[in-house]
Amino acid sequence: MLAQSQTTILSVFKLFLLPVGGGIPAGVLLAHQKGLAWPVTTALYLVSDLILALVFEPILRLLAAVARKVPFLARLAAASKALSERSTRHFSGTGAGPVALIMIAFGVDPMTGRTSALAAGYGFCAGWAVAIAGDMLYFAVIALTTLRLSAYFHNPDTAMLIVLAGMFLIPMGVRYFRPRFPGVAPVEEQAN
């Protein structure tokens, strides 16, 4: 029994370490199918985020150091910082505060959330705290959606495909339809 649960934990953990795609839905469905408790499943995802922080931070710091010395990369870093500030204005009104950074990590991924946090001046612990908070919110939404759809369709593959399609199509739909709603002015117009 113990060997089986260790195998299940390791399998779920490996799925959560996948940086893109269906790692969350597949891991959640496997954990649910094998009877792994939801707090353990959530803790495994949190640990995968912590490992991501330890692996990605040195790469991010190296890129930041190189960007200071290479003019093209310095311009790219400045453009990235300006883009981050512009895209987070509608979350907080004054640039990249913690809530805005959490929403970036929720809406994009924790690496982008951490990169934005670094551009906003957040250190290692605070920057990763907001990035992981946003990613854990994303995990909760995807996990709950996956489990509910799996119960409704009684087919984990169908549930996972619907969740994966939603992960890609819903943001595209929001970007397409947002400008078409009358009465909702872009952020730049609301400031004037």
TrEMBL record:
It comes from the Bacteria. The chain crosses the membrane at residues 12-31, 43-67, 120-147, 159-177. Keywords: Membrane, Transmembrane, Transmembrane helix. This is Uncharacterized protein. It comes from Geomesophilobacter sediminis.
